Give the backbone structure.
Amino acid sequence: MPEITSEKTPFHSGFVALVGRPNAGKSTLLNACVGEKVAITSPVAQTTRRRLRAVVNTPTSQLVIVDTPGLHKPKDALGSELNRSALKELEDVDVVAMLVDATKPVGRGDEWVANHVAASHAKKILVITKADIAKPEQVTAQLDAARELAEFDDFIVVSAPENFNVEAFEQLVSRYLPEGPRWFPEDMTSDETDEMLVSEFIREKVLLHTREEVPHAVGVMVDELEFEKKLVRIRATIYVERESQKGIIVGKKGSMIKRIGIEARRDLEHLFMEKIYLELNVQVKRDWRRDQEEIRRFGYDSGE
Ligand SMILES: Nc1nc2c(ncn2[C@@H]2O[C@H](COP(=O)(O)OP(=O)(O)OP(=O)(O)O)[C@@H](O)[C@H]2O)c(=O)[nH]1
Ligand SMILES: [Mg+2]
């Protein structure tokens, strides 16, 4: 008689950082993995300003996915802080996923990112994003070019909006995570505070509806967040650096601020599953992006 054994599938858990140039699709991929909106996304470069951790559970693993700000050439103290915050993650994670946009030629920026990735002790996975809007031959060429940049342990092509290879990405990462128990409770989604989620959701709407220098000059702070009976009462201030930017955010007869408010409220109602009362103010805080103390107050610092 053959001996009956029960082989237990090993459980893997650990941290995977999503790194890459601005706009590569890091936050979009994180949201696709989580299955809901946690991180804000936009076509504006440097959308993400702080590290965000989200927890994804599969039957055999727990991934703590770390979204990081896009690595770029910094123009001010805020830019330097964003880079510092992203690079710091390379030292602390089990797996680094370097994201490369399939539609943009691999350039010196990616090379620079790859050099940092190469120096990390973590396992390295190359992720080509936006497969839905690239031609197949473009994807192949991109894969070939990006694989030259560093020695990757593995690679995958994904499309977040089409949910193509998102689960396969999770499985691939899981294979490179160490064996071990969960780090976080199964029902935890992210490590963001409610205040931070609210301010980021509001900032996203500003990014989506303003142009040129305005999106980068915006910082949002929550002044009040009260959970009342069947209502969440929120008061927040949108800060900009110049009076002219304030004019743009307010818009003609307040049309822009109204639009931002309506869209942010819709997302927040979805997030909290409650009715939202949202009051938005706009104020000028001159050159705050050059002031380390202000950057810290907004929560956009790397915590060093
Ligand atoms: N078509 C398509 N668009 C995508 C995909 N992934 C991201 N995008 C879009 O690309 C833009 C940038 O996406 P983000 O997720 O904000 O990029 P990011 O890498 O987090 O950017 P930073 O936070 O600035 O570093 C957004 O407009 C997304 O909707 C994808 O797989 N397919
Ligand atoms: Mg982002």
The beta strands are 12-20, 52-58, 61-67, 95-101, 123-129, 154-157, 219-228, 231-240, 276-284. The two ends are 62 Å apart (CA to CA). The pocket of magnesium ion (ligand 2) is lined by residues 26-27, 47-48, 67 (CB under 6 Å). The domain at 12-176 is CATH 3.40.50.300 (Rossmann fold).
